[in-house]
Amino acid sequence: MQEKGSISIHTENIFPIIKKFLYSDHEIFLRELVSNAVDATQKLRSLAQLGEFKGELGELKVKVSVDKDARTITIADRGLGMTAEEIKKYINQIAFSGASEFVEKYKEQDAATKDQIIGKFGMGFYSAFMVADNVEIFSRSYQEGTKGAHWTCDGSTEFTLDTTDKADRGTDIVLHVAADSDEFLEPARLRTILNKYCKFLPIEIEFEGEVINQTAPIWTKQPAELTDEDYVKFYQELYPFSEPPLFWIHLNVDYPFNLTGILYFPKVKDELQFQRNKIQLYSRQVFITDEVKDVVPEFLMLLHGVIDSPDIPLNVSRSFLQADAAVKKINTYITKKVGDKLAELYRKDRAGYEEKWSDIGLFVKYGMLSDDKFYEKAKDFVLVQNVAGKFFTLPEYQEFVQANQKSKDEQTVILYTTDAEAQHAFVQAAQDRGYDVLNLNGPLDSHFIGQLEQKLEKTTFKRVDAETASKLIDKDEAAESVLSDDDKTRLQELFTKAISNEQMHVLVEALSPQDAPVIITLPEFMRRMKDMQRTGGGGGMQMFGSLPDSYTVSINANHPVAQRVLNAEGEAGAQLARQAFDLGLLAQGMLKGEALTAFVKRSADLLAAE
């Protein structure tokens, strides 16, 4: 006997909202319906294992098919099935106690709040109406003596429910595809959706006569069951065009939350490749999203891989994570596991760890900058490398330089270069004094330096071209000048006039005769502020990026060129001063364009005059 009735949602307006608002992508309907079919199949298998279902399980596939001529998509399973009463309970009422209030709130709330509201309603099945103007359910319960039931609805709140001669247990959902959803009648489109969301579901999914999924992906297995080849093969399945990963972490915890997965460390070198869609989030092997910023710490967004947890709360569309204590615990756990893995690699194979440092250094420094707890763990295995290529931990390096690189006020001064080639003259001048120089040329190093100065006691950093070599480390060792005070004043005036640039502040200093005649430096403070602004220092750093550069031009009073400039007459002295200044610019890579052309011509003239 056929029954007619109204779906208990208390409003006529809910279906347009389901269709237009509930899910950001209409393709989600297939994930929802296939996931429901898998759930029903797994539940039947569990009942059989418990002895509560004694019939033959037989083949437990979920079959998806499309009939373009009939304009239908069918999702069929041989799971629990439903009686007519269960359809009325689970389909018609759909837990919408409060749907009308939802409709009112929908009109006035922002998107984030609406996501939380719709998360209260169990509307997965009704995603079918995003692409269908009529949906049928043919179902028969696994329980003995039950009849098949046939439910149909045209997208309004009206439904019909009667008996059917369905011979086998399970449920067939038949979608009559709407005119505006023709794309979903294309087999290639459906296959793409199935590959995206259902590739690792635990029950076989058959489409066009082919099983499209792996029911037991490697993250569901124990690490002891797997080889390195298994991990690399799976990585290449996820990212077909990527280089093999450096190493990986197998996550497997069941208390105080459930979490499995595999996180891979890819080769990224010293580039900030923030590709935030490389970690895939699953819930019970159903693909949810590749936006995992709340689950995975920001600094680990560079990792690749899979995380699977049924304990991550989602809204009804399963597309947006909801803030929750479990998410924070998972985030903390992942951070700890990564720190433990890196510490283990460092302890067990220092040489191998150093070989990987160019790839993993970015992860470690980013983590230290963004997470204090990670800093405390990583300070023991973060590495620095000097220009000679030797690696040190922070404690090792402090010990290495403290004898020769302490200032008069007992500060350890760590010297660094951001470009050993371009700053070679300054590196060489520092080394000539027995100083060691670090290579700190990564995209995060300006921030990293600032953090280390805050964390390390009595330690400061200076770039090798921030001062003349004799002043990089103030040891209160004043050098004597061969020039009189009057000569120094006249030399300063000559150079100031020859340079004629307000951004260049001329000082006459007593340096070693072996130093260059003119050394141009940008003070460490100004240089660092500008570096941090360029790499996203933000806030108050923005003003320093727009300030004009203010350089110090150190004239070496003890270099023979100083005496030649003083002894030259008229324009000849100005020419020599300009030539020496241009040499200083050249050493800093700052001599370009018209000034470079003039320097070359002047050099040729001076050579000819000799």
What is the CATH topology of the largest domain? Heat Shock Protein 90
Shape: elongated
Largest sheet: 9 strands, mixed
User: Which superfamily, in CATH terms, is the homologous superfamily of the largest domain?
Assistant: Histidine kinase-like ATPase, C-terminal domain
Helix content: 25-40%
CATH top level class name of the largest domain: Alpha Beta
Let me know the number of strands.
Answer: 22
- The tally of domains stands at 4
Pfam families: HATPase_c_3, HSP90
Family: Belongs to the heat shock protein 90 family.
Protein name: Molecular chaperone HtpG
InterPro entries: HATPase_C_sf, Heat_shock_protein_90_CS, HSP90_C, Hsp90_fam, Hsp90_N, Ribosomal_Su5_D2-typ_SF
Question: Could you outline the blueprint of secondary structure elements for this entry?
Answer:
Blueprint: E1 3-6, H1 14-22, H2 28-50, E2 62-67, E3 72-77, H3 84-92, H4 99-108, H5 111-118, E4 132-140, E5 148-153, E6 158-164, E7 170-177, H6 187-197, E8 205-207, E9 210-211, H7 228-238, E10 247-253, E11 259-265, E12 279-283, E13 286-289, E14 304-308, H8 325-348, H9 350-370, H10 372-378, E15 383-386, E16 391-393, H11 394-401, E17 412-417, H12 424-432, E18 437-439, H13 445-455, E19 459-463, H14 469-472, H15 485-499, E20 504-509, E21 518-521, H16 524-534, H17 542-546, E22 551-556, H18 560-567, H19 571-587, H20 593-609
Helix pairs in contact: 8-9, 9-10, 9-13, 15-19, 18-19, 19-20
